[in-house]
Amino acid sequence: MHDMQQYVVTEFIEDYEDGLLERADLERRLVGLVGASEAANLLAGVPIVTPRARRRVAAPRPIQGGAGIQTEDVSIPIQGGQLQGYLARPEGDGSRGAVLAIHENRGLVDHIKDCARRLAAAGYVALAPDLLSREGGTGAFKETADATAALGKADANQNTQDLVAALDWLGKQSGVDGNRLAVTGWCMGGGYTWRVATQAGSRIKAAVPWYGPNPPSDADKIAAPVFAIYGALDERINAGIPAIVEQMWKNNKPFALRIYPNAQHAFNNDQNPERYNAQQAPIAWNDMLYFLGETLK
Question: Which of 43, 83, 206, 289 could be bridged to 76 by S-S, CB 3.0 to 4.6 A?
Fold first, then answer.
């Protein structure tokens, strides 16, 4: 398994161990990701866990953002095809900074589109690409688990190239200042944020990975300042903090991080009641906006 596939496998098992998945659901997800034989090997090492009661919410949280912004579905030329995406921009004239917003391992879902709208409401042009475009797009998958499995099996290097192509496309759009580009992403998208930062060089001025796995290599090639966001309860991802701190400092890279108390993995996702932290998510979001404001001046 490549590193991004291993990341998704570990996340499935972690969700099961946290009581968020039934055993049969875990097995189905692993089979879809790595095949029946390897899934059996993995399951043999996972003890039986009793699922805990799911948190209940009275009603879905309203999608935020939307006032004073324009949105559209877009198609971006990439090698061998088209990358679909969701573009949000503030209304009005002027040249603005822009942010590439990379989705979690569930694909381009409503929550990520909402994040793009929030970035637009803050004054940026935001592009959220769909990394499942080569498989027909996120909407082609009836089950979230199948979309996640497809993302886990995808060629991570190809996805990174597609994201860099999307970044270049974004920088050429009307109303975008191509010298003021940034990238952010959540969970798996946080990992791809790190990867894009290693490949985009000086084309980006800021990178904000939210609880993403470290880049497999090339930290020395990062040119942009990085602000990394972590949840204090996210032990799996946080285990990699010392390594990336060492790499960034050893290579004299501008780097800051913040660990938010009582926050789990995916604590920004307000459509995931098991993970969302209503106290820390707004603080982290505002910290990101402050960092972008300072670096995209």
Answer: 83
Tell me the catalytic residues.
Answer: 187, 234, 265
Within 13 Å and on the Cβ side, how many CA atoms surround 44?
Answer: 6
| CA distance linking residue 13 with residue 235, whole number of Å | 14
Q: Rounded to the nearest 5°, which phi and psi values hold at 79? A: -60, 120
How many Cβ atoms from other residues are within 10 Å of residue 51's Cβ?
Answer: 13
Angle at 66 between CA 60 and CA 72, to 5 degrees: 105
Nearest-angstrom CA–CA distance, 36 and 281: 37
Which residues face 210 on adjacent strands? 186, 229
Per-residue pLDDT for the chain (297 aa), expressed as one digit of tens each?
778 888 888 888 888 888 888 888 888 888 888 889 998 999 998 888 776 655 544 444 656 666 689 999 999 999 989 999 999 999 998 899 999 999 999 999 999 999 999 999 999 999 999 999 999 999 999 998 899 999 999 999 999 999 999 999 999 999 999 999 999 999 999 999 999 999 999 999 999 999 999 999 999 999 999 999 999 999 999 999 999 999 999 999 999 999 999 999 999 999 988 899 999 999 999 999 999 999 998
Closest alpha carbon to 257 in 244, 269, 247, 267? 244
Domains of the chain, each with CATH number or no CATH: 3-44 (no CATH), 69-295 (3.40.50.1820)
